[in-house]
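lol forgot to send this yesterday, sorry. struct tokens for the thing we talked abt
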């Protein structure tokens, strides 16, 4: 949501839903946003970064959560995932097809942002606020390691990761996976924290 509260008369204040992570009619729903976003001001828009994840049910494996970068172009109607560029497959860093790369670059430039599905590690979710700093957006995530259904059971702590992504296009910016040599790829988007 964006609230416009600049008018001195509170009766003129307005609220607009600018994005919905759970589009009506979709079967892929259940994503929740618990933590405040990080915002970067760019010419003509504000880029809003946030992740989804249910902190009340951290062991839930049924929902595929996301990391989002949504452009607030002062739109007055909600945008949905089809209005964003899906960067889950890391096409920008792995494709050699010039047409595909140009199309994605154009869509990132003119569209309403990007998202990455957290579908590699089952149950992975963002359970904290992201941080955009020096043209890099940092997300931390948690993926449960279910050895039992009891969250207090030893060994049931799960795995936390740190993602470091280019703030405009979601590409890896750190060489976290040394097996690639100096080449950045999707496996370099994150590193295990513990």
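and heres what i got for the seq, position by position
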């Amino acid at each position: 949501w964006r609230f416009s509260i600049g008018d001195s008369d509170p009766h003129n204040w307005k609220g607009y839903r600018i994005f919905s992570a759970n589009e009506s009619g979709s079967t892929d729903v259940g994503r929740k946003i618990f933590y405040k976003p990080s915002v970067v001001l760019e010419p003509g828009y504000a880029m809003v970064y946030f992740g989804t994840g249910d902190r009340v049910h951290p062991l839930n494996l049924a929902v595929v959560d996301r990391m989002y970068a949504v452009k607030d172009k002062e739109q007055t109607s909600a945008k949905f995932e089809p209005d964003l560029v899906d960067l889950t497959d890391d096409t920008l860093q792995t494709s050699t097809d010039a047409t595909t790369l140009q199309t994605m670059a154009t869509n990132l430039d003119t569209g309403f942002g990007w998202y990455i599905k957290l579908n590699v590690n089952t149950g992975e979710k963002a359970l904290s606020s992201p941080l955009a700093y020096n043209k890099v957006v940092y997300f931390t995530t948690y993926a449960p390691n279910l050895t039992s259904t009891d969250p207090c059971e030893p060994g049931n702590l799960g795995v936390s990761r740190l993602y470091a992504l280019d703030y405009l296009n979601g590409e890896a910016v750190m060489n976290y996976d040394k097996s690639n040599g100096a080449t950045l790829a999707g496996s370099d988007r994150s590193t295990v924290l513990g």
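The chain has a mean pLDDT of 90. anyway ping me if u want another try
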